[in-house]
Amino acid sequence: MALDRLGSSLTNAIKKLFKTGVVDEAAVKELVKDIQRALLQSDVNVQLVLEISKRIEERALNEKVPPGISRREHVIKVVYEELTRFVGEKPVPLKVDPGKKKTIMLVGIQGSGKTTHAAKLARYFQKRGLKPGLIAADTFRPGAYAQLLQLGNRINITVFGEEKAKDPVKVVREGLKQFADKDLIIVDTAGRHKEEKELIKEMKDLEKSIHPDEVIMVIDGTIGQQALIQAKSFHEATPIGAIIVTKLDGSSRGGGALSAVAATGAPIKFIGTGEKIEDIEAFIPSRFIGRLLGMGDLETLLEKVHEAEVNVPQKKAKEILSGKFTLTDMYEQFSAVKNMGPFSKVMKMLPGMSYDVPDEMLNSAEGRLDKWRVIIQSMTPTERENPKLLNSSRAKRIAHGSGTTEKDVKELVKQYFMMRKMLKMFKRKKKLPFGLGGKGGMGMAGMPGNFK
Ligand SMILES: Nc1nc2c(ncn2[C@@H]2O[C@H](COP(=O)(O)OP(=O)(O)OP(=O)(O)O)[C@@H](O)[C@H]2O)c(=O)[nH]1
Ligand SMILES: [Mg+2]
């Protein structure tokens, strides 16, 4: 199944979840089944599919849903995280430093794209101001050196090799000597021998004698299940440090690559996306998975999740706690809370909040949240910064502007002063509430300001 088709079947599974009335155990189980089907159809190894889906199911059913997001959103977040996890959570860049003379060796079976990607990599780093050199160590296939030489010439990169060479180790040794002034030396190796055993032996010999800084396996993204077997046999010969998945343009299967990652434990560092020398991208796991899942809807969701988790900058939190708490701050808090679902539930989950705030206060605050936001919106900036100004005539004007009553406005102002008093109390206790002062500052949801 094509990568984009895997994407669309995963997207459909997720869309279905969005439409489900209640996200209960049955809905989660159905989603997991849909995901399994999508992954299997796109060539991800069975064992791996089972592992992933088991983890998704366990987390989706058992994990406590953090405040601010619904169970539905949490389930999707889990799916995203588990898929991302197994292609690596963060991008792992190929580090090349000027003057360090890093040697990388590309391995992989014939036709996977080693020679093409040797040139692509050289170009990639050349464009970033580094000095790469190419070594043609495929002495088996006739014309291999000529192919690399031609590619190198096109991009103005020196290629070391010998037309009639027989011994790749000798070629590389000589090449390394010649390339003493390079920042990155890329060794292109053979992908075929009379027997696979010989190929594997050659990789071992090369690795032992030239000690590359990194062995990178080049995997054809269209080969599906075979990727796993290939990755395993190469990994046994020479520990694979990184993976390049090629041919992810057109109708490629993504699944095989995922299997290879699992087999070697090595991160994907680049993907090849076409036949041209420029067609190479540094691999970004979240983007890859995003593509698989049809990121459209998901992006907004993840943003929302992220926002709910966003920490108030320490400085801001300290200001507020020292009494510099304005109606603008209060408004921000209302808006933050509004995005986070049931108010009282959110508040109850905050450390320190559950016993500090009486239930009726939370409930009444929740009911009036929208009204209060409109009222604050109808104030002038000066009034928001200095609520003491809010006398009766101003309150009347604001009530009129917001379609509320003067009583509503006064009540909001009263709540505001109560809130501020409470904040000052926290300050006097000299104990920073809600983890404030810890590593990340305090969570937005953790602000006492949330309930006012
Ligand atoms: N569409 C597409 N084609 C690619 C990509 N990478 C390589 N190819 C094509 O795949 C074919 C094989 O690429 P090579 O780089 O020669 O593969 P190799 O691993 O060096 O093969 P051997 O030297 O025989 O072991 C060539 O026709 C390339 O143009 C890619 O990312 N996308
Ligand atoms: Mg080649």
Strand content bin: 5-15%
Percent in helix = 55-70%
Average pLDDT level: 78
Q: Identify the overall geometry.
A: elongated
Task: For the record, give the distance between the C-alpha atoms at the N and C termini, rounded to a whole number.
Answer: 54 Å
Question: C-alpha Rg, in Å?
Answer: 30 Å
Adjacency order of strands in the biggest sheet: 3-2-4-1-5-6-7-8
Following the backbone from N to C, one meets helices and strands in this order, namely HHHHEHEHEHEHEHEHEEHHEHHHHHHHHE
- By DSSP, the count of extended strands is 10
Bound heterogens, unique: guanosine-5'-triphosphate, magnesium ion
> Are there runs of 5+ residues with pLDDT below 50, and where?
294-298, 308-313, 341-357, 430-452
The largest β sheet comes out as:
8 strands, mixed
Topology (elements, then pairings):
Layout: H1 3-19, H2 25-41, H3 46-62, H4 71-86, E1 102-107, H5 114-127, E2 132-137, H6 144-155, E3 159-160, H7 168-178, E4 184-189, H8 196-210, E5 214-220, H9 226-237, E6 242-246, H10 255-264, E7 268-272, E8 280-282, H11 285-293, H12 295-309, E9 311-312, H13 314-321, H14 327-338, H15 343-348, H16 353-356, H17 359-377, H18 381-385, H19 392-402, H20 406-428, E10 442-443
Parallel strand pairs: 1-4, 1-5, 2-3, 2-4, 5-6, 6-7
Antiparallel strand pairs: 7-8, 9-10
Bound molecules: guanosine-5'-triphosphate (GTP) and magnesium ion.
Residues 114-115, 138, 144, 188, 191 line the site of magnesium ion.
Descriptive key words:
single chain, alpha/beta, 8-stranded mixed β-sheet, two-stranded antiparallel sheet, 20 helices, disordered C terminus, binds guanosine-5'-triphosphate, binds magnesium ion
